[in-house]
Amino acid sequence: MRRRVGISTLIALCWGQFLNLPTVGAKEVTVSQNLREVDTYHFAEVTVAVSRPDVSNPFAEAELTGVFGKKGGAEKRVIGFCDSEDGSVFKIRFMPTEPGDYFYAVTYREKKGLNKQFKGGFRARKSRNEGIVRVDPTHPFHFVWEGAGKHYFYNGTTAYHLLSWTDEGRMLSCIERIASTGCNRIRFLNYGRASDNEWGEGMVQSKDFVWTLCPWPAKYPTRQLKEGSPEFDHSRFNLAHWRKGEKALTKMRDLNVAASVIMLMDRGIRDAPAAGSELEKRYYRYAVSRYGAFSNVMWDLGNEHNEYRSKKWANEIGGLVKKWDCYHHLTSAHGHAAFPYDLEEWADFAIYQRWRDGQNEFMLAQRADAIAKGRVIPQINEEYGYEGHKGSGQDEVRRRAWEIVMAGCYQTTGEWKGWQHGEATSESEILKWTGLMRKFFEDNLPWWQMKPANEVIRSGKACALALEGKCYAAYLAETQGIIISLAAGRYSATWFNPRSGGYKPIQKKVSGGTWRSPNPPGPGDWVLLIESNM
User: Fold this and answer.
1) C-alpha 441, offset from chain centre
2) Which CATH class for the 450-532 domain?
3) Runs of H (alpha helix) within 213-355
4) Topology, domain 7-125
5) Is residue 122 within 8 Å of 36, Cβ to Cβ?
6) pLDDT digits 0-9 by tens, 241-284
7) CA distance readout (Å), 380 to 98, 153, 243, 472
8) Which of 7, 300, 302, 424 has the fewest beta carbons under 10 Å from its own?
9) Which residues of 367-380 are buried (b: 16+ CB within 10 A; e: fewer)?
10) pLDDT tens, residue by residue, 63-116
């Protein structure tokens, strides 16, 4: 029995063939790019639009990959990401580090067999962006800005729940305020959960602030830690969360602030994907694909990860992050007082969490251990006491910060309440003080060439850095003079007030050999700066 076809259907079919229109069920895949010219250390973005993706979960059943490179130069393999719930939009980004003409070839694939490739190009022009933070190959206890070619005085703070502000403008204002103090690195969570008053500083959830960070869709996205599981769907991603993270990274990049993206703070509550699972690896891979083209990114595999993840886990995930990240951004993992990855290639710098006093002695020991093991990398204490938290007074935290840097190491501090979310109280002083500390070194000293030199202090309580015969800096935690041993030569000496940023020259002539300083010009801690006149 033949089926009769109506005249209207025949006409529609004929016109469709004549106009070459797609028939029902056909799929169109198109490509576009945001810019034909892009600044170095910013990124070009290629978008692939899919009319009818044949996938039930685009985050698992489709992918966009690409090869990017400068004409005549090396190629980089780049991972793209799905940027729509239904899989109709995929994006891939590339950050050029040198001016010139660039090419790309991107490929969209679906698990069921569709494979489409597109080619294109763009031009990169030199920008003022300071670039990616790297370990200084000549002085590997220190850092450099790759783009600017100048040294980076790592001066960080913690703002765990920066992304918990529901008002993105408020989040961005927090970043601007922090950057204005001289802080040039902010560490924040991409995933983590907490509860009202959990850390004893009075922060409570409201319409403006939600403790639970949701990089995955959640059935109960506003459930606090103490209230039970949000019931995440780990197989997909919550795009609003990632877009907010990108806005934070953009603001920090524009202010030359490095962003330490803490991927995980699970603390054994098991709301994140299972350790080592394919879902967990998909989460880290997606983060690299979305955030990796930001020049200011640093990766932290997990905050206090040793409480809920193993060393074997960190080595596997760290290796994967390095493999997926074609820019090889600095990577580490925040633990406690020991750093077990100092010989692992994926770990670019050592992170410690060691509270209490005695910071100079502790960090000197870590530095000596790195030298003894034959792999010198920067040494950072990221939690040594937050301002006003758990009995740590303001002055006490400032003194610890100075003790750390006088060991030739670096520090990350925390403001009263601000370490939770980036919005500190008016009484907070610590970021102003660490900003003054950074300015002191950047204005006066080649700190990356200086070495710990406590042995030059012959009498008095102080710790010192020295580039022998050139410059010396001594930190005096107490109001007292010191006796210091100097190389032969003539010098000028100046007192620096680490609380106000003021200087007071010492009029007395300073000569090489054993020199007795006058007493500091006022109460409190002081820094003695000695510079050669030769």
Assistant:
1) 22
2) mainly beta
3) 239-254, 278-291, 311-324
4) Immunoglobulin-like (2.60.40)
5) yes
6) 999 999 999 999 999 999 999 999 988 788 999 999 999 999 99
7) 30, 12, 30, 22
8) 7
9) beebeeeeeebbbb
10) 999 999 999 999 999 999 999 999 999 999 999 999 999 999 999 999 999 999
